Amino acid sequence: xxxxxxxxxxxxxxxxxxxxxxxxxxxxxxxxxxxxxxxxxxxxxxxxxxxxxxxxxxxxxxxxxxxxxxxxxxxxxxxxxxxxxxxxxxxxxxxxxxxxxxxxxxxxxxxxxxxxxxxxxxxxxxxxxxxxxxxxxxxxxxxxxxxxxxxxxxxxxxxxxxxxxxxxxxxxxxxxxxxxxxxxxxxxxxxxxxxxxxxxxxxxxxxxxxxxxxxxxxxxxxxxxxxxxxxxxxxxxxxxxxxxxxxxxxxxxxxxxxxxxxxxxxxxxxxxxxxxxxxxxxxxxxxxxxxxxxxxxxxxxxxxxxxxxxxxxxxxxxxxxxxxxxxxxxx
Length: 331
What we know:
Blueprint: E1 8-15, H1 22-38, E2 43-45, H2 62-68, H3 75-87, E3 90-99, E4 102-110, E5 116-120, E6 130-131, E7 137-140, E8 146-149, H4 158-166, E9 171-175, H5 194-198, H6 204-211, H7 217-220, H8 224-231, E10 234-244, E11 247-250, E12 254-256, E13 262-265, E14 272-278, H9 287-292, H10 313-318
Parallel strand pairs: 1-2, 1-10, 2-3, 4-6, 8-9, 9-10
Antiparallel strand pairs: 1-14, 3-4, 4-5, 7-8, 10-11, 10-12, 12-13
Helix pairs in contact: 1-3
């Protein structure tokens, strides 16, 4: 592992992707990455599926998705890799991957040394033609820091973040397309009225109040800081903003430290780059990292047992069926 680079500046980005327009979205990535690197960032994190757009894909046919997808060694990731090398910084962005005849919601982290790390979303629910990945993505970097990538819903299952932390990751790249979704939960997120986005120039405060409310930032604050705190890990949260087919994404791009504190976040409901220095001196005594030393793995076998009630990611995400009242594992 190379010597730790400090201070280490990182950026998270929120922007409104153009549906199915790779060139337009790639141009936005180039522009905002250059802006972030000019401000001293060594790593720039863009949202999930930002190179293609997100929610409109749920209405495509499998054949249409295949036509939009690219392999991990295809021209789109090659462009990202070239951008990372030319800027001398890491660039992470989401794309639809065609791999071995299968589609994946994937995320490429391209590093300035030319290496590329692809994560396939572990809990993909967007479309029946999009499969879930089957492995964690944890990797070393030229800056002497070990990182991991988890996409959107991957971060909502607590086991995933703990797993990458146990593999030595101290920085979690967490790209999303969330906020303003139609949650089945009565106290979960709800869809934001589209007119809030369309009227944002005339009434910016109404939109800002909504994205910072219970269907946006308020929802994130219920769980996102705990992922950072409980695992003693930096979290780089990037998200879409604005029109996403028939939903409005809430942005809320932010950087959290290993104590679950927000180091920096966007003050706007619009395209934005959020930058902060990661203070690696916080890691050795971070509460979550100290707690992990007190783990008793011999007690946790239940975490790997099946209840028999498991659902695939798509069913679990979209089903209106309640969880059985007698749900339990281990008899």
